[in-house]
Amino acid sequence: MKRIVCKFGGSSVADAGQFQKIKAIVEGDAQRKIVVVSAPGKRNPKETKLTDLLYSTYDLASKGLDFSTPWNLICNRYIEISKDLGLASKIGDDLKALEDKLKNHPESVSTDFLVSRGEYLSARLMAEYLGAEFVDAFPIISFDDKYRISQKSYEDIAKALNNENKLYVLPGFYGSNLRGEVKTFSRGGSDITGAILANAINAEKYENWTDVSGMLMADPRIVENPLPIEYVSYREIRELAYSGASVLHDESIAPCRAKKIPINIRNTNRPQDPGTIIGPTPENTKHAITGVAGRKGFSMIYIEKSMMNKEVGFGRRVLAVLESEGLSYELCPSAIDSMSIVVDSKALDAVQDIVLEDITQQMRPDRIKIFPGISLIATVGHGMTNKIGVAAKLFTALAEDNVNVRIIDQGSSQINIITGVDEGDTEKAIKAIYKAFVS
Q1: Helices marked H in 224-266 — which ranges?
Q2: pLDDT score of 145
Q3: Are 225 and 208 in contact (CB under 8 A)?
Q4: What's phi and psi for 321, nearest 5 deg?
């Protein structure tokens, strides 16, 4: 039987009521055999995320300070869920043992280990509540410090989850590093865990359950009542996620894409909604674009030099300067006698003087200047491919709304047009593009 991997985010496991919704969802389809959970999320806007409380606890404990305030909030949360579900869980004993270790031997508890307990304890409760087998993500998921998953991980996962008739529950967000220590993913990494498991067991589908009914064609905080996206390809979602559409962690695409496993973004609170399907091939849509998203916080390094195009290796040497300072670049539009490199502003700020000095000494440019405060707006869609007039419509819409375009980038794939605008024009630009193609 082909199985479905279900990942439930923090809002989906926030309290006992949410656990009950998950049970109904899992029991609603016999193929749902692998459940991945995050740490409990916030129950209201004023509440602190449990993961943040764990970070606070570690910070205080590692300094030998009283950590009882955040720790008590953590303990009360798990004990409350266990009690409300009527479980005979020994979660209190686990928490007490961890507290004793933090008090008496804080040096033996790493940041990653303590923070990972948010997902670990959540999964323990979920497994007991569902009558499922608990399987720890450590050490069957192993990766290096760059989060590259080993082939052995996929083999170990397949062995650990080999019974197709059994229900398994695993914690998301962490695994093992090369030294055999608990290592967490970046924030939101439970999405990645679910995708890795789906790949390892050759899943029929990967369902990512959250608090929204799939993806929208634009950010609803910017565009009023944007249309939902029913289907989006792996390539399109990668572009949209990178550019600010944050429903799904962008690194969770690759494991499913490798085996053409569809991803279905669903709403735990509205399980009747079909959500958004992310799949291997584009589908015909009535709109030329699939979506528009934007991200602030970029700077542009502008370099000008006469006869630059004749100077072999010029671009490589410029990028080598960035590499030496640990900077990656987002875009690199160029002309005959000039090139621009768009980088993350925060990353650049720390090494800006060094970068400017090195480029000046090595390349001897006629002019070099940094332009901060840039947003990158991505307009994405397979419907744009080879369609005459798409770019004209986009730039006309921006011009009519008095948005000055600082950067234009369109690859040969033609599924994405990126425009760089002043940060103050971000929302205006997104609204203008959405209106031009959808309204």
Answers
A1: 234-242, 253-258
A2: 66
A3: no
A4: -65, -45
pLDDT for res 364: 95
Q: In sequence order, which residues have a C-beta less than 8 Å from that of residue 430 and are 6 or more positions away?
A: 218, 219, 222, 223, 292, 293, 294, 377
| Ramachandran category for residue 137: left, alpha or beta (phi over 0 → left; psi -120 to 50 → alpha) | alpha
Kindly list the averaged pLDDT for each block of 10 residues, start to end, along the chain of length 439: 95 97 98 97 92 96 96 97 93 95 94 96 98 96 79 93 97 92 83 95 96 91 92 85 69 90 96 94 75 94 94 94 94 92 95 96 95 94 80 95 92 81 96 92
For the chain, the helix, strand and coil percentages under 3-state DSSP, each to the nearest 5: 40, 25, 35
* Amino acid making up residue 98: L
pLDDT in tens, 178-210: 888 999 987 667 899 999 999 999 999 999 999
Q: How far apart are CA 321 and CA 314, in angstroms?
A: 11
Q: Which of 36, 74, 41 is nearest to 55 (CA)?
A: 74
d(CA 374, CA 424): 9
pLDDT at residue 185 in the model: 84
Helix, strand, or coil here: 7? strand
H/E/C letters for each residue in 12-53?
A: HHCCHHHHHHHHHHHHCCCCEEEEEECCCCCCCCCCCCHHHH
Q: What is the pLDDT of residue 205?
A: 97
Of 420, 424, 390, which Cα lies nearest the Cα of 405?
Answer: 420
Of 92, 97, 57, 93, which Cα lies nearest the Cα of 77? 92
Which pair of structure tokens corresponds to residue 23?
């049970």
Nearest to 299 by CA among 250, 351, 335: 351
Q: How many CB atoms lie within 10 A of CB 209?
A: 26
Beta strands 338-344 and 329-331, pairing class: antiparallel
Residues 264, 100: Cα–Cα separation, whole Å: 42
Give the pLDDT score at 43.
93
End-to-end CA distance of the chain: 44
